[in-house]
Amino acid sequence: MKQNADFVSPLFYNHMANDWSDIIKTIDIPSLVFSGKKSFFNWKLVKKVSEELQNSEFELFENVSHMLFFEEADHFNKSVTEFIEK
Questions:
Q1: What's the pTM?
Q2: Run of H or E including 35
């Protein structure tokens, strides 16, 4: 782990322990949301979050887990590039 644990630990806890649903609905910038079907985060919940964003796209990676940007780097990079070029 390259990050400072004193910073990352509270950040991760804050991310996981708080309800952000009221904030998510206010985000209106274009957003691309990914999930791996085999991730430890339920992809259906991730998709639901993407549906709460005002201007988002959701992409499910069928055969990967949480580290989809490593597991299918070419697919991930292509998706991000296409999204940015829109």
A1: 0.76
A2: strand 31-36
| One-letter amino acid of 85 | E
d(CA 8, CA 73): 24
Please give the Cα distance from 11 to 4 (Å, whole number).
11
Question: For 62-77, how does the pLDDT look when each residue is reduced to its tens digit (9 = 90+)?
Answer: 999 888 899 999 999 9
Q: What are phi and psi of 60, to 5 degrees?
A: -105, 125
CA 54 – CA 27 distance, rounded (Å):
6
CA 83 to chain centre: 14
The sign one gets for the Cα dihedral 58, 62, 64, 65 is positive
